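**Sequence with structure:**
===
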Amino acid sequence: MFKTPLKIVLLMSLLLSSMAASAAAPTCQGNDCIEQQKLYLSLALGYGQRSNPLNGGKNLDLVVLPEIYYYSEYWFFDNGRLGSSVALSERTQLSIIGQFNQEKGYFQQWFSGNLLQFEASTVVMPQFSIAFERQAPFEVAVSQVSKRPTAFDIGLQLDTVRHNTLWHLAYWTDASKQHHGQYASVGARRGWQSAYGNWQLSANLHWKSAQLIDTYYGLTALEVPPGQEYLGRDSWQAELRLNWNKPLTERLSVLIFLRYLQLDSAMTDSALVRSDHVTTWFGGVSYRFF
């Protein structure tokens, strides 16, 4: 089932590795630098929540958030993402990355990708949204539908720094042949320091293919009465993130994190979905072990 995608991944990894051997590493400054061949591990202890937009879906309580990353000369692991990068110039790099698809996290709380998607060390008080929660005439709960698959995606990401802002463009495809879809994102991230701590603001626009949306949020004749089926279509979702942290010592920091994701009608038209947004917030203290 994985033979063809794995061959492609191995070939691309070898290509990136060979290119990286002769490429100059991107420049970095101050706290942006990550020392190679060194494991970074930190834990954030506090409280927060990620809302669940599905009928019958439980909000995810956030109490302990781990952050683990390691960068070698040819490959890296960064909070659940495994990949390899090549520097195209001093300010631009291309990466091939593999990770578990995050849609499964709304259906299963103990999904491994639920905690590793949050960057605790760079992680704003909860923001209250007045967005309308759709009251559909017909609703379907998570417990009423068949089990959604766990998928593993492979993608290419291009990162470049311009005018003190990090820009990225990424494209992902299903290597596990579970949702048979693709998704892409484009976004920008900018950080700044003040007397009150370190801030980081990012904005992203995500596109998810009809196959991906249909796999997780579509409804078949086996799950709903005749005439209530739903066939997923392409989805566009906008996202905002705001992070704040203030170091107390060399290893201890206080932090706050906020994320807002706006869902479009491609998802909310499904009777499985009750809300048109997902909010995530967390506040606490972080301790870096390594």
Summary: The longest strand covers residues 38-50.
